[in-house]
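Q: Could you fold this chain for me?
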Amino acid sequence: MFNAFYLHLISNFIEGTAFTNNIFWVNDDAGHRGVDGESYSTCPGVAEALMDCAFVEGTQTEYSFARNMLLPGWTNSAQFTSLLDPAALQAAYPGLTENWVINGASIGERLANAGLNSVGAGGGNFRVQPQSPYAAGGSSAASDGTALGANIDQLEQAQGLMGPAVATGILPSVAMINVMVPDLGAACYVLYGTGTDVTQFSRTAADTTSSQQRSLQVSGLEAGLTYNFMVVCSGASNASTGSFTPTYNVNKIGRRPRQ
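A: Sure. Below is the predicted structure, expressed as structure tokens.
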């Protein structure tokens, strides 16, 4: 999840504005480098020059722009034509430190260089991957030490949603399914099988560990086959209303051939 960075300034000085710890997708419509002063005639220029005028009164700097990822997008976001040159974006913000412009010859390459999951991967959002320098504890993480951008794990937990389910420790006959769940002690289990008919899947015993981070073992696997699995967890946030809506994640275990 990240924000489209587009400021349309139409009022007088705005003091104390802060842009920090964000992931911004920056398009370059009309050559504005993400900041437009269409109705702000007293402040000519674009990008940092316009921000300096709009957010600074006299000689006092009244805004901060730091520890943001700037991901260059399109020069025409309506037609998705021509990519914004990262060097041109960097040049538009010369006086701003601790901001990171992402390079890449394509949108996919820029997402990869940023360490971001594409839509449909890692839970269907733009979650920062653990190995990325922008992830929690990384060299370019947010100022509070968490991942740059939205704290997606916290958002999912607040909604009663599980995080992405990941298969690890894959052996010829067993594998571990790791997942973050919203409630302590909730009963969680894994359905898994080689087909797509969930009613024919095997099921693990319910795990009620008093932890949000769960590791569930699936067994009886056969080397060389691909298994689909589904993690089902009760006791989500809506359990407090008296209703019951299990949440689940679907993924695949890529089996390694037997040595």
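A (continued): DSSP finds four helices and 19 strands in the chain.
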